Amino acid sequence: MSAEIIDEEEATKARVKERQRATALSVRASTWPPVTPASHGQQQPPLRRNIAVGDLHGDLVNTKAVLKMAGLVDDRGRWTGGRDRLIQLGDVADRGPDTLALFRYLYQLRKEAAAAGGEVVLIMGNHELMTLMHKKHRLRLPFMRDPFSEHGEIGRWLKHLPIMQVIDGTVYAHGGVSPYWAKLGCERTNLQAQKSIKRYIHSGDLLAAKMQFPVFGDNGPAWYRRYAYDKDEAAVSELLDEALGALGARRMVVAHSPTRSPKMHVRCQGKFIDIDTKISRFFKWPDGTPDGNHLSALEIIGDRVTAIYPDGRELISCGAD
Ligand SMILES: [Mn+2]
């Protein structure tokens, strides 16, 4: 009986320690450019909502719809999320016609959120990397190329996006963070990306640049697909636990790998969640089959993780176990 109580005490202490470590990591994780929340509460504020949204691919209408569904904006797309934090997991660019308008919208939303004490965090996706390198056909047109050039209206912002983040014990990346980058750590991985982004942009050859700068390569956080698509559950579990352990985090949330259904792909007892349900109406599978317009947002409050869909909410985990 008393041994059980002691065990429980130990477990509680371990949980508190783990949480402190995760908080320390999230505080250290930097977002660029830095923004200072306008309001500072005197009392301990309630837990803020972290809302993660996946690939938006040039669809402004569905972007506003998904943010409204998650309770972050009003009918006109203006921030009503208060202190909430939106984490957009990359691939804002391409497929649909609204790439430039979408980045302008998110830039404005970022300011509105900061003014309300909230936050908008954008993570670098592989399409942002390709856009910065001007690899997309459309970007050969000067009116599109200029805003996305290194010093352009959007480019000068995009080139500083973090390639991964750890926020409140959850790892966020566009593709996924393999144990290699997890062991290097969030701060140093982002630093490595920042150090090479300029040379990457000017390399002009995607395949060569992927080899030269592994942080932007197929096993880097923006392109990795193994957690999402490897069918070997045991192997994925082992890799994921290694990465989460190295980062002192409890779960990893990614996009980039379209899910087979309109629902999120949850693996490894909720420790891995792929939220790319194909939100954009312009999504097509590689064989050309259209399959988009599936809205979803992931809400994390403390350890309560809920998927939000147009037809309702689905609890993924409640942190009680
Ligand atoms: Mn992608």
TrEMBL record:
Domain of life of the organism encoding this protein: Eukaryota
InterPro entries: Calcineurin-like_PHP, Metallo-depent_PP-like
Domain Calcineurin-like phosphoesterase: start-end pairs: 52-192
GO molecular function terms attached to this record: hydrolase activity
Pfam families, sorted: Metallophos
PANTHER family, per database record: SHEWANELLA-LIKE PROTEIN PHOSPHATASE 1 (PTHR46546:SF4)
Protein name in UniProt: Metallo-dependent phosphatase-like protein
Lineage: Eukaryota, Fungi, Fungi incertae sedis, Zoopagomycota, Zoopagomycotina
